Amino acid sequence: MDKDVEAFMEEIITRNPGENEFHQAVQEVAESLMPFINKNPKYKKAKILERIAEPERVVMFRVPWTDDAGEIQMNRGYRIQMNSTIGPYKGGLRFHPSVNLSILKFLAFEQVLKNSLTTLPIGGGKGGSDFNPKGKSDNEVMRFCQSFMSELFRHIGPDTDVPAGDIGVGGREIGYLFGQYRKICNKFAGILTGKALNWGGSLIRPEATGYGCVYFAEEMLKTRKEAIKGKICTVSGSGNVAQYTTEKLIQLGAKVITLSDSSGMIFDPDGIDEKKLAYVMELKNIKRGRIKEYSEKYGVNYEADKRPWHIECDMAFPSATQNEISKDEAKMLVNNGCICVAEGANMPTEPAGIQVFLDAKILYGPGKAANAGGVATSALEMSQNSMRLQWCREEVDEKLQWIMKNIHNSCVKYGKEGNNINYVNGANLAGFVKVADAMLDQGVI
Ligand code: NDP
Ligand code: 2IT
């Protein structure tokens, strides 16, 4: 490891003991940025790297609620307000039993650079709870969300911090959270994104992360005179991002052959068509069932406790969670002829796996660039709320496509290395410069 990165990381590890995911995210960025910062002493002198790795504010709170049996349950809520230099804190809420400070700080840190890349005026934040929505009734989820918002409301606002969805938080949860905010604040305000269309939501927001990821992959392919049509694709996850990644890939003529959840994966060599995808959406979003049921309905293979990366493909779209592609799985993908990996999830590839992709010079689009379409469209939802207007589907989709092209251009500008584009360096540098310059402008605060 570079000596400056090593010294910097020692400090990060001492200040944030045990927060492995946070260390991982910061180290990747520090490795990209250190040579640039050393060449540009203004950033070094102002200690920008040290400052962006320290949240502006962390809120942690008790979330008590009563289950259907009348038993009192207790969870922990969080909101990490990481950086508001270029706009209000913006980023999702994750409800998953694994949620802790390390995971939310890594997500908030990534979010700052991602949001900067979108071209829109949004700062970075992330929040959530160790609440597990699986197996809970709608009423239990509602009571949990109401209790969560009964504290969160003090810390958010249309010009302060605007949360949205992430793992375990979709339209249902955003509805309950918004309702509680409206009741206790007596305000109808754009304090969350991912709202339903009939109360302030934006068209295309549910689709945006998946669609955006495919648009980004398309831009990457163009640099090698390739196209999506006819490509065999593996997708992991079967939630919001996986579903709309699959939908767009089908629309563009690709064949999606896998999906997964935390219990296992399905392999459908004939491809998941629109009808099968509609079944997945009903299964996951309404029945809240397991992906295994797909294999029973369509008579395809199900592998318990497996991820899809051993299946031969042209393109891979990790869309479930962090660290879901190991070094060995990355090697398997490359050896099987995969030419493009576009990350719908945040930090899905382990550092050693990223190195495999970079060494093989395949098209590797890191999450903070490839999945930025979701938060970008959230920012478009904020614009529509501010104007009290609603744009049509085509208008939002056009803006999303333009934004993904722009993010790709920024990655090319900052990541070009000879004939190759290093999208990791490109995204980290492009995201950093905008925030860093704004921090210089605004002084030591
Ligand atoms: P959902 O909750 O809708 O879906 C998550 C999917 O990933 C489910 O299939 C879930 O399986 C699976 N999954 C979750 N945790 C794990 C785990 N620990 N191991 C294996 N599988 C797991 O979430 P999203 O689709 O919204 O989010 C997926 C990823 O995309 C996350 O990394 C998120 O941060 C990222 N992202 C989301 C955006 C958005 O707009 N929603 C925007 C940008 C990035 P199961 O049902 O079994 O839990
Ligand atoms: O990781 C992400 O970018 C999200 N979960 C979306 C955040 C948002 O504010 O729309």
Largest sheet report: 7 strands, mixed
Please tell me what the overall shape is.
globular
Distinct ligands, ions and cofactors found in the model? NADPH dihydro-nicotinamide-adenine-dinucleotide phosphate, (2Z)-2-iminopentanedioic acid
By CATH reckoning, the class of the largest domain would read: Alpha Beta
What distance lies between the first and last C-alpha atoms, to the nearest angstrom?
Answer: 31 Å
> Strand order within the widest sheet?
9-8-7-6-10-11-12
Low-confidence stretches: none
Number of helices: 17
Strand content: 15-25%
Integer average pLDDT: 98
The name of the CATH topology of the largest domain is: Rossmann fold
| CATH architecture annotation of the largest domain | 3-Layer(aba) Sandwich
Layout of strands and helices, then pairs:
Elements: H1 3-15, H2 20-39, H3 41-45, H4 48-52, E1 57-66, E2 72-83, E3 89-95, H5 101-117, E4 124-129, H6 138-152, E5 161-164, H7 171-185, H8 205-222, E6 232-235, H9 240-251, E7 255-261, E8 264-267, H10 274-286, H11 292-298, E9 301-304, E10 315-317, H12 327-335, E11 340-342, H13 351-360, E12 363-365, H14 367-370, H15 372-387, H16 393-415, E13 416-417, E14 420-421, H17 423-442
Helix pairs in contact: 1-2, 2-5, 2-17, 5-17, 6-7, 8-9, 8-15, 8-16, 9-10, 12-13, 15-16, 16-17
This protein binds NADPH dihydro-nicotinamide-adenine-dinucleotide phosphate and (2Z)-2-iminopentanedioic acid.
(2Z)-2-iminopentanedioic acid binds at residues 90-92, 111, 164, 166, 193, 346, 374-375, 378.
Descriptive report:
It is a single chain. With 445 residues, the chain is an alpha/beta fold. The protein is 50% helix and 16% strand. It contains 17 helices and 14 strands. α6 crosses α7 (171-185) and α12 runs parallel beside α13. The longest helix has 23 residues, at 393-415. It binds NADPH dihydro-nicotinamide-adenine-dinucleotide phosphate (NDP) and (2Z)-2-iminopentanedioic acid. Residues 165-168, 170, 209, 237-242, 261-263, 319-321, 344-346, 371, 374 line the site of NADPH dihydro-nicotinamide-adenine-dinucleotide phosphate.
